Amino acid sequence: MLDSTLPLWIAHRGAGKLAPENTLAAFRLGAAHGFRAFECDVKLSADGVPFLLHDDTLDRTSDRHGVAGALPWSALSRVDAGGWHGPAWAGETLPTLDAIARWVIANGHGLNLEIKPTTGLERETGRAVGRACAELWRRAATPLLLSSFKPEALEGASETAPQIARALLLDKLWTGWFEAAQALGCVAVVTNHRCMDAALLARLHGAGMRGLCYTVNEPADVRRLLGLGIDGLITDAVDRYPAAAAADAA
Predict the structure, then answer these.
(1) Residue 209: band (very low, low, confident or very high) from pLDDT cuts 50, 70, 90
(2) Catalytic residues, which ones?
(3) Is the pTM higher than 0.90?
């Protein structure tokens, strides 16, 4: 199986909130702050191109409106995905998965790739992302972890890329989550940091799975989770923990 062991510190959506999320500019800024592992969101264009975006719609993080997955890549490639964050970022584009993969691999960085399907396209998106990652990381040695809140997306990824490790994302501990993570062959579970405690982490470790948390920004939460022995911290606060991230990746 492809290496999925990420550094402890992981930059959320590239550089958290310091740059327009899920853009190459954000990844570059996160790296400039010492981070060597990143989290981002991937979905499909109408013609099947995997690209980075968190929401179903373009409304919050671009100059366009409507469901992003309803548009072909030729239209999405012309979207301004930076100007909403400030004039200095105007003209920043939506990156393809291919572009992000080539950047992280060339720089030796790890990636936690969240499969974020347009509603109703969970399994299809998982299959397409798995297929693309299998090719992009075919000769790469950099860590890659595919994660999703949607079990169907992880099932799809396992069909086309069984060699790429998977993680179940949890905002809350719903009934049957543990059995689902095991059935999906997950190597990790990524929870809202408020869900994580010593008993939960011990249960994961006892089952041979790692425990990671999002979105960990406050020092008190960092201290608590480090005290538990957490395996990964996904943070927006890339300017608050640069030294820790750089030391972790050294």
Answers:
(1) very high
(2) 12, 54
(3) yes
